[in-house]
Amino acid sequence: MNKKAVCIMSGGMDSTLSAYMMQEEGYEIVAVHFNYNQRTQQKELSCFEAVCEKLNVKEKYVLDMSFFKDLGASALTDSTIDVPTTGVEDGVPVTYVPFRNGIFLSMAAAIAEKESASVISIGVVEEDSSGYPDCRESYILSMQNAINLGTKDETNIEITMPLVRLKKSQIVQKSLELSVPLELTWSCYKNEEKACGVCDSCRLRLNGFKLAGVIDPISYE
């Protein structure tokens, strides 16, 4: 029987690389994408679909999490809150979506149990966690413990974070090594046509490409 990995995939660079790394390790990919009423929902979904095609994914889930809109409290899900473009923010950024990764991991755990998958892959990067509490390695490991306590005795799930200690430039380099289709990925928090280039996510991405000495293949304003 094939070993399976449930890969949480946003359509972004980090989670796409994570899925490619799992495939390289011999896992059959069960791809999971969440529509949570984020500003770039349609673009992220189309990127996810395109990446799944490249990976020859046979089993995929696209889950509607529109309740995040009712929750609000984040610039990603509430159109009345501006996405910051100055790059200067102290504490938890306004783009943090309350407990998003915890909710995503809970859903991924349900899918992993159904699919008899031994691994959940998530593309968290500690470099992001200065602002996002749900990207910390210690947090993800505690979620792994909770998931295994709350599932069947024979269910034993490992949450893998292949990028957690990498810098964005290393993520770009690793993506190039594995022929990851970076032109199909999206990072911008604001736009769906051309990336803004000034939100935190675009800045991180562009700086990663710059330090890696290569040109980002997506279009910017």
From TrEMBL:
Ranges in coiled-coil conformation: none
Positions with a binding annotation for ATP: 9-19
GO BP terms: tRNA queuosine(34) biosynthetic process
MF-aspect GO terms: ATP binding; ligase activity, forming carbon-nitrogen bonds; zinc ion binding
Cofactor: Zn(2+)
Keyword DNA damage appears in the UniProt entry: no
Annotated catalysed reactions: 7-carboxy-7-carbaguanine + NH4(+) + 2 ATP = 7-cyano-7-carbaguanine + 2 AMP + 2 diphosphate + 2 H(+)
Record's function text: Catalyzes the ATP-dependent conversion of 7-carboxy-7-deazaguanine (CDG) to 7-cyano-7-deazaguanine (preQ(0)).
Protein name, per record: 7-cyano-7-deazaguanine synthase
Protein's organism: Sulfurimonas aquatica
Lineage: Bacteria, Pseudomonadati, Campylobacterota, Epsilonproteobacteria, Campylobacterales
Gene name, Swiss-Prot/TrEMBL: queC
